[in-house]
Amino acid sequence: MTKVRIYTKTGDDGTTGLLYGGRVAKDSPAMEINGAVDEAQASMGMARAEAVPGSELDGLLVRLERDLYVLMAEVATDPANRHKLAAGTTLVTDEMVEALETWIDGLIERFDLPAEFVIPGSTRASAALDLARTVVRRAERLTVTHPIEGSAVGRYLNRLSDLLWAMARWTEGDEHMLARTPRSPAGATVDDTQGAGTNGQDAQGRAVVSEGTIEGGRS
């Protein structure tokens, strides 16, 4: 069997190849965007590792992670070659953005929006989703600084960050979707339904603040 090497040495000069040809510096704007998206995808994978295989959470994360490959392909294309991109395969479409909006609207109907600051870490899955959300925000900021003309990438990232926030809150209330149940050091199952905690926190570890909803990272 022929061995395949994962290193090419072509990037030793500090450049990387683009889809459909061309090379750019590894710290170019496009690669900074894709680097952030790559981080976000990995964080989403951490959340997926906590999900029951075949569950709704698992399926949605797989779909989103595959979408990010489409997005990264578009970002890694020289503007002169944009005409070669294929909708939904290497080009982010309006329909992909609209799908995120549909998922957001559907999810927020399934839990009460918190009227407080949310402290990440109620579950490992929600913590990973919150981490992914913040990294997606970074990628979005980079697209504002370095816009891609005629692209839906920025809008997709904006909606994705909102969806990840909604997914994090959703998983906090639907632990049956998770492969692992948090346990105390003694091995007993943690009961998140017990009374409110101390130091201004509720039972889920959220810091209670004044009236009004302050939703982490949403816009």
Structure, explained:
The chain contains 5 helices and 2 strands, in the order ββααααα. With 219 residues, it is mainly alpha-helical. The protein has a single domain (16-177), classed as Cobalamin adenosyltransferase-like (Hypothetical Protein Ta1238, Chain: A, Up-down Bundle), CATH 1.20.1200.10. It is globular, with a radius of gyration of 20 Å. The model is unreliable at 181-219 (pLDDT under 50).
Say what oligomer this is: single chain
**How many separate helices?**
5
**Estimated radius of gyration:** 20 Å
User: How many domains make up the 3D coordinates?
Assistant: 1
* Shape call: globular
Structural class designation: mainly alpha
Strands in their spatial order, largest beta sheet: 1-2
Q: Mean of the pLDDT scores?
A: 83
The biggest sheet amounts to: 2 strands, antiparallel
